[in-house]
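Recall from the previous chapter that SMILES is a line notation for molecules. Here it describes flavin-adenine dinucleotide.
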Amino acid sequence: MKTGTIVGAGLAGSLWAVYLAKAGYKVTVFERRPDIRKAEISAGKSINLALSERGWTALREVGLDRMVEDLAIPMYGRIMHDEKAKLTFQPYGEEGQAIFSVSRGGINARMMDAAEQSGDVTIHYNHQCVDVDFENTKVTLLNKETNETIEHQSDVVFACDGAFSAVRYNGFQKVDRFNFSQNYIADGYREILLPANEDGSYKLDKNALHIWPRGEFMLIALANEDGSFTCTLFMPFENHEYSFDKLNSRDDVDQFFREVFPDFHAMMPDVADQWETHPLSSLALMRCYPWTHENFALLGDAAHATVPFYGQGMNASMEDCYVMGQLMKKHNENWTEVFKEYQEVRKPNGDALQDLSVHNYKVMRDLVADPHFLLKKKFEHRIHDLYPEKYLSLYSMVSFSNIPYAEAMQKGKEQDDFIEKIMRENDIEARFENDTIDELIHSIFQAEAV
Amino acid sequence: MKTGTIVGAGLAGSLWAVYLAKAGYKVTVFERRPDIRKAEISAGKSINLALSERGWTALREVGLDRMVEDLAIPMYGRIMHDEKAKLTFQPYGEEGQAIFSVSRGGINARMMDAAEQSGDVTIHYNHQCVDVDFENTKVTLLNKETNETIEHQSDVVFACDGAFSAVRYNGFQKVDRFNFSQNYIADGYREILLPANEDGSYKLDKNALHIWPRGEFMLIALANEDGSFTCTLFMPFENHEYSFDKLNSRDDVDQFFREVFPDFHAMMPDVADQWETHPLSSLALMRCYPWTHENFALLGDAAHATVPFYGQGMNASMEDCYVMGQLMKKHNENWTEVFKEYQEVRKPNGDALQDLSVHNYKVMRDLVADPHFLLKKKFEHRIHDLYPEKYLSLYSMVSFSNIPYAEAMQKGKEQDDFIEKIMRENDIEARFENDTIDELIHSIFQAEAV
Ligand SMILES: Cc1cc2nc3c(=O)[nH]c(=O)nc-3n(C[C@H](O)[C@H](O)[C@H](O)COP(=O)(O)OP(=O)(O)OC[C@H]3O[C@@H](n4cnc5c(N)ncnc54)[C@H](O)[C@@H]3O)c2cc1C
Ligand SMILES: Cc1cc2nc3c(=O)[nH]c(=O)nc-3n(C[C@H](O)[C@H](O)[C@H](O)COP(=O)(O)OP(=O)(O)OC[C@H]3O[C@@H](n4cnc5c(N)ncnc54)[C@H](O)[C@@H]3O)c2cc1C
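With both inputs in hand, we obtain:
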């Protein structure tokens, strides 16, 4: 029987197990943590995440979309909260288009269930990969309950062990000519749980992603199923007017929220008491190449961990599974061929994902409060309404399509130059006001067509 | 008694042991390899290296310069060998200034001797560092002879374990917010030993560094004490008209040397037979920060491994020792203070060292064969002769001074712009020919002074 090993049962690993099982492999998964379905533990990192088209596409391919649907809370746009508690809504896409807030633990558990049901899949928990043997396609695991070390051999190994991948550190990184970087950004994050109202209802509109953009830092909130919101403060660690190192006491924190996020403070006056519930965490970009070596491949964050500002890390990881699945069929499971094409095709997209993610921090914390940016978005949406085939905004290409990230980024740049030029040459605001915006758009796009 | 641990007894570790012993520390050194003074093994990497002012300064500080002097063969300039075997000499600096070819094993052995003589230093060979414990200032060592693992504790630990530092991989790299990259360049290298003549004499002028610049690749040669030369071919691994992947058979190699390095082939007609004597090796830049954590510090290649094209890796590593030594005195061995200033001061210089090294590959393989570049060098030397206080070429700042690398690089850029401008506005070649070059230089520098 064909055998495959997966290291890590996180978002990529649990999904890839389904793909591999469906292809008839005997799959062995090793996961460092206990089973999150049984233990009262966090699934790590953020508590909820934004799932968008690429994720859905990868889930759909193996029939998992329906298993996940009831976990997913649609978010149709952003709601910005300014310093005076004034709200502004900005749709993400067309009417009805949304990205979805899902619980990390929830989706991970469903994918584990699906993996176990879909074929010959065994997940070993509390098994930490500590070494790899490329030559013999083996991984070494430390059983954290018994403290014993075992070896496991298979035809092919997939490292889905996340940003701090042990397979990458202990294996790939020692391979000659393996390029690698780990780059921490100057900002960290801390989560805060905004509880539901006493009657279980939401304190904010649940169908939007909430942002308190403050220029150099921001607070965001995504709804959970139980009426609460998981809120995340992203901010520099140090050396700024507002940075984590300035918030040392209960009073510092209280005053900071009262002053900077007044509507949030009003909803959660005890925010300072909850401050230490979650740790202050750092954010890094991991870049490397090659992504495959002998019979080993890196998938997901192990290959291209990024900062979370485009809400695409999980989506990209799932897309890795989708692409690997397509290539597995295309090359008839000749893994040498599959891996070659996988890394050549995916690497530029991993790099673009990271560039897009870094850039979007500026968008979220700063530009969404900028009138010019909002007008541009409105203009873009109108263009898309009139010429849906011809114009898709960068955000839509990333979140509502499966256009490869690198292509989306390139097209996005060209479009941005084009839009900026039109905006310099025309008074778009006036055009909207006096209802001549469509005229302008038609004149441009009909001229373009010629 | 004050105690210090050094991991790695290479070029930085053996020198730093001397510094630390002189400061009254009980020093324990752990070295992975056997004692190179006893075993018939290579000291690793290149067989000889260019030692220049920064290295001498660091050696002098602890009285080691005299121990090394008799190993050192002065090289007063470069001799370029073109495709027609025509030779061009270009001095490195002023009359009498030289960089020095030294044997890696030789200088390493002398520094080990000195370390053992200079105080309470014990070097444990065949001891490989496999783990670190920051909290308790401990390192874990695998005794490669007995296969036993031991722990060693001390006041302070210095990681001098080179480009692939185990302390960095197993310790620093796991520290939150540690930035790191390992970047392999597209080129590799292979060494070739050009033997002495039968009577023991040199086949080439020993007092120069020989270069066969060929645009995208190059061969270089540095003299050894025994009449031989260590030659190194630097060339892309693949995807070029000339790259290592094209040289697969004895015939390929023979034809390549015959065609591209005819004078070399004439001296060593059996080059193809010697081809496999040394391995094909890769070249990487390692960049990281911070360089210190708790009571641990990275020194030498562990902190800033670079490509060898400026002949400065060892010199920079020795300069680390010198700077650390100065700071140790300045801060009265308060290691927190010492480490803070060490990394703040040295990091920009490590980065500059790497930028300079990368750039100098182009200089060596390509520009030294370019008439404009050679004329510029000649012009620079003349300026320096006339205004020695005011003008030092970049090469001289790097190789014949202790001006920090970052400062040298910055000044070098400004000077280059300045010289290029003068060369655009004046016919320098004609000025040399009709003996009016000094006039020009005086007119510029006197105008400058105003
Ligand atoms: C604050 C934050 C917010 C985010 N928000 C979003 C979002 O809104 N949308 C989105 O698409 N993405 C988001 N992401 C990114 C997303 O979390 C990751 O891209 C995604 O988790 C990657 O999946 P993965 O399976 O590659 O890694 P992980 O989900 O990290 O899974 C790795 C698994 O491997 C296990 N493991 C690790 N080491 C070993 C070992 N040695 N042996 C065995 N098992 C091991 C881990 O326990 C874990 O289960 C966010 C990330 C962060 C940090
Ligand atoms: C081809 C080439 C040519 C070069 N030419 C020049 C030149 O002309 N001039 C110049 O200045 N520089 C040159 N360099 C650079 C120079 O070799 C390095 O900068 C220098 O060796 C760095 O010294 P180091 O002590 O930091 O590292 P190394 O000299 O590499 O010493 C590291 C030591 O640590 C030991 N070690 C490694 N891992 C462990 C472990 N886990 N436990 C215990 N011990 C360990 C190693 O065995 C070794 O002895 C060249 C480099 C190369 C590759």
